[in-house]
Specification:
2 copies of one chain form a homodimer. Chain A is an alpha/beta fold and 336 residues long. The first copy, chain A, has 12 helices and 12 strands. In chain A, the strands form 2 sheets. A 6-stranded parallel sheet of chain A has the order 2-1-3-4-5-11, with helices on both faces. Chains A and B meet through helix 4, helix 5, strand 2, helix 6 and helix 11 of A and helix 4, helix 5, strand 2, helix 6 and helix 11 of B. Chain A binds a DNA duplex (16 and 16 nucleotides) through helix 2 and helix 4.
DNA sequence: TTGAAAGCGCTAACAT
DNA sequence: ATGTTAGCGCTTTCAA
């Protein structure tokens, strides 16, 4: 039933090599022969079998993407830019959504390897030994997107400078007269972005000679609910912070909702600053001031670097650091 | 460099068929031989090439998914459930994000076919002739997820009853004393869900003997910005509706923001009802009352039906209609 | 400018 | 219980 190159060859009265040539726009095909073959392809609704092609060419044009949670605003945006850039370059993406499940991640890595993907993009940085080991035996290129691999894994990454970004943000808060600055952070054990953003916060505080107040520091998993719960715990303290910096927009929105649900106002009672500058910043009121990551550029560059590596024009990139900036909206007020 | 089944066979001192047998957990392998082969596989870090396997088995375990916009709250949730259910059944998903671009859709359909996907899920229902034609010549199963194919395309679909859902919602508004009921709809030209939801709205109005007021009716593309703009146009009318029903949560949130930005209150001045009951309903304040689609079930059943068709246990399903219900939160008030 | 033939890595009869 | 062999549908030398 399924028609193959041989059927086309027969109908056009040529050999399969000739069909292959017109399929691949090869030279050395007489115009009339080419036309006849094209006609046969059309007549038969023939579509070449790229599995067979991949087998001989050892190239699938497949990119495996591993994301921690595609239903999240930051990841779904990034993924959509990755998809677009890949498709523009005639690559297809296979997605693995691991929801923080490292077994699932290892399994996906394995499956992607079996599927002979030409390369992988990892948007997740929790690691364990088996994953590290797997990655180090891998011969295809991998790039980390908005995540940094642990030192033992030698893969390029596309990122902003997380520590500097957090530092700059907190410094800005200080310049606005804030001294009671709460922090809702990400996981600092296994996640380098979590560590770096926290380090930036601490350093900015130290530079401004502000003592850190553990009452206003909490850590979560970047989700809205985490932000909500942590903010609630802040609200239970004796004294309130004048501003809270959350290292994801989702957590900042969670904090916002907690504040509003407790009949306080943003930014009149408490100011709020998020991180990522994802779409959600403009879906809430007040609109969220947020540290901007160039999401589109991050997604696109990850793909571009990966493709360059795949196609052998390895640029020897180790790490790409992109610009960040604070985008001011309505959730932050000056105390001056 | 890449190690294959032959290398394993040599190292284990057996034939490639034996290796193949242990790879596929075949019977008729002596325990000690099996162990030796497993050892060789481990020693060599061998991973079977599923491209080659697919070529002979004529089965890729790949599902192609076409979505209109994965950065949207409804689609990214649905996609994440699809991914989970597929992965649970050892299928991988290839995603094509078409952003309403029908050329891109046709191209993806073609590429998916070349890649020999075992089946496709389409979460989009705009059609044109070439796509219809392509779909009708396709011999692999396709299921429409939260979308209905046009009559000429004979594929199963998983849906709620959109017309009934809209009807029930509007009837409920009437029962709460509302008679000035605005409507923010989806595209009604090529999109059947758009048509059905609008039809449900009109019928409920007719049943309640309420005249339709075109001042309060607008159509958009299901996005937040559309909802915002349409709501703004309603606000410019002489009289305001007491409630507005938007056929996507994103549009409802857009409407909410427009209202808030214009210093009116929800639900005191205008009530709001959304559609989908996606995550965004709980990220805004007031929380959005919304017509619930069973997103998880829709995603999972789409995959299950598709896999059944792929694996030949065709259940002869034409259409699956799932239950809807209105989830009441804080954006709708009673006038009674 | 075209065709014949080898082979990509694997599975699945068929032999043994 | 194991090995031999013929493909799967294509690309790609190489020869004509």
């Amino acid at each position: 039933m399924p028609v193959n190159i041989k059927d086309v060859a027969e109908r056009a009265g040529v050999s399969i090599s000739t069909v292959s040539r017109v399929l691949n726009n090869g030279k050395y095909v007489k115009p009339e022969v080419r036309a006849a073959v094209k006609q046969a392809i059309e007549d038969l609704d023939f579509v070449p079998n790229s599995i067979a092609r991949s087998l001989v060419r050892k190239k699938t044009n497949l990119i495996g993407v591993i994301a921690s949670d595609i239903s999240t605003s930051f990841f779904s945006s990034t993924l959509s830019y990755i998809e677009e850039e890949a498709s523009r370059n005639r690559y297809n993406i296979l997605v693995g959504n691991i929801k923080e499940n490292l077994d699932k991640e290892l399994n996906y890595l394995q499956v992607f390897k079996e599927m002979q993907v030409d390369g992988m993009i990892i948007m997740h940085e929790m690691m364990n030994k088996p994953i590290e080991r797997f990655l180090s035996t891998l011969t295809i290129p991998v790039v980390f997107c908005s995540a940094k691999p642990s030192a033992s894994v030698n893969c390029p990454s596309v990122n902003i400078n997380d520590k500097q970004a957090a530092y700059d943000t907190v410094k800005h808060l200080v310049s606005l007269g804030h001294r009671n600055i709460g922090f809702i952070g990400g996981d600092t054990r296994e996640i380098s972005t979590g560590q770096h953003r926290y380090a930036g916060y601490l350093e900015a505080l130290a530079d401004a000679e502000i003592a850190v107040n553990p009452d206003w520091i909490g850590f979560g998993n970047l989700k809205m609910q985490d932000g909500y719960d942590i903010m609630c715990s802040f609200l239970a303290r004796e004294q309130l912070p004048s501003v809270v910096f959350a290292v994801s927009d989702d957590m900042a929105v969670g904090a916002l909702n907690c504040i509003v649900d407790n009949k306080l106002r943003v930014p009149e009672d408490i100011s709020l600053v998020g991180f990522d500058d994802s779409g959600i910043t403009e879906t809430v009121r007040p609109k969220l001031t947020s540290l901007h990551q160039p999401i589109q550029q991050i997604g696109e560059m990850s793909v571009d670097i990966l493709i360059k590596m795949i196609e052998g024009n390895a640029p020897g990139v180790k790490e790409i650091v992109l610009h960040h900036k604070l985008v001011e909206r309505d959730s932050l007020r000056s105390l001056l």
